[in-house]
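// run 5 | inverse folding | seed 20
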């Protein structure tokens, strides 16, 4: 019996594994009721169907649980799914978060070093002191290094926030190499802290989900409050500089329809917006590309409003 990860499943595999239940619905069909599931492990997600559910599956099973399930890998509408014949709650001693949640491929120490190296490049003493006040807060820095940058779309895994933040700051610095008038300190700070509020926006337990404050307040406003509070504790912190730093965070989503509080109105805020766009899109596209084995056409990607093409095995046919 296979113990493969979801990403390695092949049609007709008989598998037993531990999964996070991301979604559960009881649906009707001609023979009665069946249970539709979305299951996840450290490598990805798969739809599950239980055509002959027991009372546990119908009445007790719910999203957020970790389960041990057995089934056969089948195919429906060109997508793999798991036809489940047995399922139960997993004991806490039977799994770890590494089994059921995806993680950054970059080691924690590497991500920490990238963040600290970027902070060391900041020349303005006020901005550097503000940035360091976050990293010197051991709990915050640990939470930041282990947080996700998204729930489903981009860098949606443990460590995704620090990876994405470093990527954005580095991208912004590459842009600044061609434009002497850009303030690199603003770009580094914006890259590192534009999504810092996601430390609180998402909870990570058996799945990545929104916290109450994440839904009710949102990561942009959360980060703005944190930055303002810490800046006010630094003696003589220039108010005009704080306004620019806050603008970087508040404007980083770039367009009002993306729920940004304000539009970019300084040069560095434009660079931050586009750097964030590039890395978030590439992170999402990489995830989709890996799911398709790096070739062929993707399914229709609703958030991009298109299909994606990853090339053919035979390079001569491209």
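// decoded
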């Amino acid at each position: 019996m296979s113990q493969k990860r979801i990403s390695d499943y092949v049609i007709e595999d008989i598998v037993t594994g531990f999964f996070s239940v991301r979604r559960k619905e009881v649906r009707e069909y001609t023979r009665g009721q069946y249970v539709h599931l979305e299951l996840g492990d450290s490598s990805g997600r798969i739809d599950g169907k239980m055509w002959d559910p027991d009372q546990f599956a119908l009445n007790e099973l719910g999203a957020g649980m970790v389960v041990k399930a057995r089934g056969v890998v089948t195919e429906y509408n060109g997508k793999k799914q798991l036809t489940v014949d047995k399922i139960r709650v997993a004991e806490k001693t039977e799994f770890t978060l590494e089994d059921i949640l995806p993680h950054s491929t970059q080691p924690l120490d590497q991500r920490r070093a990238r963040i600290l190296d970027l902070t060391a490049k900041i020349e303005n003493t006020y901005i550097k002191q503000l940035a360091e006040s976050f990293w010197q807060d051991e709990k915050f820095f640990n939470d930041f290094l282990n947080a996700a940058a998204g729930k489903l779309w981009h860098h949606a895994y443990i460590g995704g926030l620090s990876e994405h933040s470093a990527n954005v700051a580095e991208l912004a610095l590459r842009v600044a190499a061609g434009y002497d008038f850009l303030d690199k300190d603003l770009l580094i700070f914006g890259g590192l802290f534009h999504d810092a509020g996601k430390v609180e926006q998402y909870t990570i337990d058996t799945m990545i989900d929104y916290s109450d404050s994440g839904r009710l307040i949102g990561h942009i406003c959360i980060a703005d409050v944190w930055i303002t509070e810490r800046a006010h504790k630094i003696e003589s912190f220039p108010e005009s500089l704080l306004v620019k730093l806050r603008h970087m965070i508040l404007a980083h989503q770039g367009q009002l329809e993306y729920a940004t509080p304000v539009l970019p109105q300084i040069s560095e805020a434009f660079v931050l917006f586009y750097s964030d766009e590039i890395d978030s899109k590439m992170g999402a596209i990489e995830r989709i590309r890996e799911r398709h084995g790096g070739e062929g056409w993707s399914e229709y990607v609703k958030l991009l409003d298109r299909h994606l093409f990853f090339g053919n095995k035979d390079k001569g046919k491209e």
